[in-house]
Amino acid sequence: MKYKVALHRSEEGITVGVPALPGCWSEGDTEAEALANIQDAIREYLAVLEERIVADGFEMREIEVPEEPCPASPA
């Protein structure tokens, strides 16, 4: 699955968040490090979310959502 991430560069390094997963943030000294760290954060976020959902008595399923091309930008 792919997630869009938002990167913010500062003198301290790079902060990266996942708009689709509120509260899912990480950081790194380099872009590569920040992106590797956010991958771990996404996995952990989703694992905790699934545990909570199952604990509440819901059944988990997976579905595929095909990507649709973005509409062309106006000229």
Can you lay out the helices and strands and say which pair or pack?
Layout lengths: L5 E5 L2 E5 L7 E4 L2 H25 L20
Instruction: Please tell me how large the radius of gyration is.
Output: 16 Å
Morphology: flat
Helix content: 25-40%
Number of helices: 1
Strand content: 15-25%
The major pleated sheet works out as:
3 strands, antiparallel
The residue-averaged pLDDT reads: 92
Distance between the termini: 31 Å
Strand order of the largest sheet: 1-2-3
Poorly predicted runs are none
- Please provide the count of β strands: 3
Output the structural class. Answer: alpha+beta
Order of helices and strands: EEEH
Describe the structure concisely.
This protein is of the alpha+beta class.
Detailed description of the structure:
The protein is an alpha+beta fold. The chain is 33% helix and 19% strand. It contains 1 helix and 3 strands. It has one helix at 31-55; strands at residues 6-10, 13-17, 25-28. A 3-stranded antiparallel sheet has the order 1-2-3, covered by helices on one side. A hairpin with a 2-residue loop joins strand 1 (6-10) and strand 2. The longest helix has 25 residues, at 31-55. The chain starts with 5 loop residues before the first strand and ends in a 20-residue tail after the last helix.
Task: Based on the model shown, name its key terms.
single chain, 75 residues, alpha+beta, 3-stranded antiparallel β-sheet, 3 strands
